[in-house]
């Protein structure tokens, strides 16, 4: 079994229980969680999902997972999602697939937020992966210049010849830092810029991380406090 399948399926089996409302993340790792939840439902388990993207909505529907909108649920028992990078303090970069805003809203609304990450995603320091920042289209070049003041190189994400558009109608600026020295501060600083909607740093949100150890087993990562 590949690493993404191993961590993705373990999350479904270990965290999703009968009667739960589950936040369904976006991407190629949590794909396996969603497919597994679909199988569990076919075997008789009652689970409802809240999707973090249009892409996940489609996948969940294909797998027979009943969906609720966030405003219809009282609480989300657990949200499960992938990450682009995660460190040993469980700080994460997300948004490589452009879904960071809805992912963060759903992670915050959840009683427990679990990340599924193959071994390549676990890093000592965040920053090798360009940090996605969702911005409103109006005045994007000005917003980009304010972001650059934090010491990064920026690229407006494109899809073909036109800017990539998120599910919320916004743009993404990908920001390359050599190393993110203080992720906690940077998360706040970026969100203070007028024009920034949200950034892909997930700080003090992740409860558990499922990854792969040296013996190729899916395990829970130890957290450094
Ligand atoms: O916007 C996308 C999400 O944050 C994904 O969870 C993240 O990019 C990881 O995706 P994948 O599991 O495909 O590497």
What keywords describe this structure?
Alpha-Beta Plaits; 2 domains; globular; binds ribose-5-phosphate
Give a written overview of the molecule.
- The structure is a single chain.
- 28% of the residues lie in helices and 24% in strands.
- The protein has 225 residues and is α/β, with parallel strands linked by helices.
- The chain has two domains: 3-122 and 204-213, Rossmann fold (3-Layer(aba) Sandwich), CATH 3.40.50; 131-199, ACT domain (Alpha-Beta Plaits).
- Strand 4 and strand 5 (92-93) form a beta hairpin.
- The longest helix is centred in the N-terminal third of the chain and has 13 residues, at 3-15.
- The structure holds ribose-5-phosphate.
- Ribose-5-phosphate binds next to helix 4.
- One of its GO terms (biological process) is D-ribose metabolic process.
Instruction: Label the CATH architecture of the largest domain.
Output: 3-Layer(aba) Sandwich
CATH class of the largest domain: Alpha Beta
What's the β-strand tally? 15
Shape: globular
Ions, cofactors, ligands: which are bound? ribose-5-phosphate
Strand order of the largest sheet: 2-1-3-6-14-15
Topology order in helix (H) and strand (E) letters: HEHEHEEEHEEHEEEEHEEEE
The number of helical runs is: 6
Instruction: From the alpha carbons, calculate the radius of gyration and give it in angstroms.
Output: 17 Å
CATH fold description of the largest domain: Rossmann fold
The figure for the number of domains is 2
* First and last CA, distance: 32 Å
Please give the share of residues in helix.
Answer: 25-40%
What's the overall average pLDDT, rounded? 98
What percentage of the residues does DSSP assign to strands (E)? 15-25%
Unreliable residue runs:
none
Largest sheet: 6 strands, mixed
Query: In terms of structural class, how would the helical and strand content be classed?
Result: alpha/beta
Organism: Niallia taxi
Pfam family, one: Rib_5-P_isom_A
GO molecular function, one term: ribose-5-phosphate isomerase activity
EC number: 5.3.1.6
């Amino acid at each position: 079994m590949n690493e993404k399948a191993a961590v993705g399926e373990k999350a479904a089996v270990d965290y999703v229980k009968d009667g739960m409302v589950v936040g369904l993340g976006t991407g190629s790792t949590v794909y396996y969680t969603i497919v597994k939840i679909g199988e569990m439902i076919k075997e008789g388990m009652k689970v409802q999902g809240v999707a973090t993207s249009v892409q996940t909505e489609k996948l969940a529907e294909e797998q027979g997972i009943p969906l609720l909108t966030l405003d219809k649920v009282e609480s989300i028992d657990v949200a499960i999602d992938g990450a682009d990078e995660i460190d040993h303090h469980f700080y994460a970069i997300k948004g490589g697939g452009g879904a960071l805003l809805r992912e963060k809203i759903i992670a915050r609304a959840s009683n427990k937020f679990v990340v599924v990450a193959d071994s390549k995603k676990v890093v000592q320091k965040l920053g090798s992966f360009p940090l996605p920042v969702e911005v409103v289209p109006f005045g994007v070049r000005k917003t980009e210049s304010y972001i650059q003041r934090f010491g990064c190189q920026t690229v407006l994400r494109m899809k073909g010849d036109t800017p990539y558009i998120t599910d919320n109608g916004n743009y993404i600026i990908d920001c390359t830092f050599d190393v993110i020295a203080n992720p906690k501060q940077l998360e706040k600083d970026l969100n203070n810029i007028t024009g920034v909607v949200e950034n892909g740093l997930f700080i003090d949100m992740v409860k558990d991380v499922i990854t792969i150890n040296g013996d190729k087993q899916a395990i829970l990562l130890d957290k450094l406090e």
